[in-house]
## 1
Amino acid sequence: PPEMVSDQAEKLLDINDILNGNRSVYFPRNTGREPLHFYLTSAYMSIFNLEVSFLNLKVVAVFANLLTLFFIYLLGKEIGNKWVGLASVLFAGMAYWPLLFTRLALRIPYYPLFVAPVMYFMIRGLRRQNINDILLTGLFLGLGLYGYTPFRIVPIFVVFGTIIYILHRPSKNKRLETIFALAVITLISIIVFIPLLRYWLANPDLFGYRAFSRLTPMEAGFQKSPLLIFLENFWKASMMFFWDNGVIWAHSVPGRPALEVVSAALYFLGILSLVVRYIRKRQWIDLFLLVSIPMMMMPSILSLAFPGENPSLNRTAGAVVPVFIVIGLAFDSFISTFRVRLSGKFGKLIPLGILAVLVLWSGLNNYDLVFNQYYRIYRASSWNTSEIGEVARFFIESVGSPETTYVVGYPHWVDSRLVAINAGQTGRDFAIFPENIVETKADPRAKMFFVNINDTESINLLSSTFSDGVLWEHESEVENKDFMIFFVPPLAGAGADGS
């Protein structure tokens, strides 16, 4: 994404607070945020002495995504084989869905980041009854609760997964060992969760607000029966891979499927194959995988008070892990079928040719979605705060100062905090209300006002207040994003510090 939106402003301000000594366990700004993304990004910026910026926010999110791909490989290898793992990583690594929410640089990547190791170590632990795998499941389950709010569904999924395993294992000893394993996972995750648990107990309303405002009618009443809304949401979320992934332009191409045509076809074949195989063989891992997808989408499905927000690619982000495992299984099965049925020289070349065509086709589809369709929509929908910030930075570093740089308030225009961040002044807010413009006349320093091109009242007020001011229109690189600049020269002898 070329521009920040207000969500990134909230993140960078929290990070800036950490760099200035704040050590919160939970960040209350903007209805509450888990801390992991902020502390990791703060550490990265501090260690390498980097500016608090959108790019550096992105870098840490990208590393989170790369680590997710590593665990997706391990999970695919555990469920199938190394080719399943590699195929899952290949399609997940170039898919538009995770690429977009990763580079948006919010906390979203931390949902799949912890879903992947929880599923991997849980499956290993249940299969082998290995205490180390059980302990690691608990560790990652606890850590995941520090990442992104929708991860709170995963402890419930762990219980469901354990029940599925028990129902498919008739041995009494196995059942007792599994119940003990669940107890250990619960204990370890609670120990890791204790700091957040303490905050939750002290501030239950704030900690639960983000989730319960969507689940319950605390903000908006239910439009119809909650059960009916749930069923409709479930259907829409299930179909988002093939039909409509929602309307949020910040992390999706609105109105199109979450998967491009190759991945969607493989996903459909993979789900069908798992269902048929489960009916025939009753393997717990197949049902576990099938159940994991709707469970990871529950934070979106349970938006009962605001059904228009479902489906959303951020609250379903945890489903990235099982969805691309299913795609990897289908891809491996598809290619293996050709290898088994064809012999001779062409029998080896044809599967390779099919593999190359599918991968190239999928790659080109995703490339177009990310670098063409999404980029155009995002650029047209977001405000050009980087352009305004660049002009503000030049003014501050030449004849002006941060204290005399202003963004005049206007409905539905730029976030003045983002202008300050882009100008290298994180923590400041350049906002000024039109009624306060006259008060700045007492300051003898050079002043610069950024004004919405349609705000004729503020432009007239500035012109009448500062007779020596200069007004000009800044032509933006983005259509319909031009803005006005009003420059007031300093009084004779006035320095940048006002002296």
Note: Residues 25 and 196 are 6 Å apart (CA to CA).
## 2
Amino acid sequence: MYILKAKLEDGVLKGDYWSGKTLHQTFTGVRDENAKLPDASKLTFLKDGYDKIVFSFPDLNGNQVTLNDPKYQNKVVILQLFGTWCPNCMDETKFLTKWFDKNKNREVEIIGLAYENKADFEYAKTRVQKMKNKWSIGYDFVIAGTSKSGNASKSLPMLNHVMSFPTSIIIDKKGIVRSIHTGFSGPATDDYYLHFVEEFNTLMDELLAE
């Protein structure tokens, strides 16, 4: 849950930001007519010397999952870094669920990497399983760590950072990272959402055709 409150004083926006039960920060801002949103596809990237994602995380049954498992070989794989506590992540999960239901026979897999609020496997498993059952999600999930700031970056040290949830990583059939997208513009963002869907489908069609 996020709460932002601010007041405009003499041309300066001054406010407070709360996330969850504990995080609180203050902020200030001034109007910039030339301001642009950063490119969501360039915020997170592989560090020099890396071209692949490597991990080993337990699935909801406690079995270790890696990208070397036979199930993911010679397939396009989407990694969804998310948490059940994150509203934008839930929007992305709904999108990916519908997309996967329509495309699961096209040599593609999705793995949801869950970062939950407590470092307790049973707690995290219960949260993810409840979500999976509620929306009849057909793709895979693993418990990757906690949502505490910096933990996602530590769990995937080949990335420069994980700055936001959700973050999606698209990997081609050879195991090479082809796209990393920070955040998710849900249906309420209108044109931003439509643009995202178009770019996503174009990229996936290209990779699946290779």
Note: The longest strand covers residues 108-116.
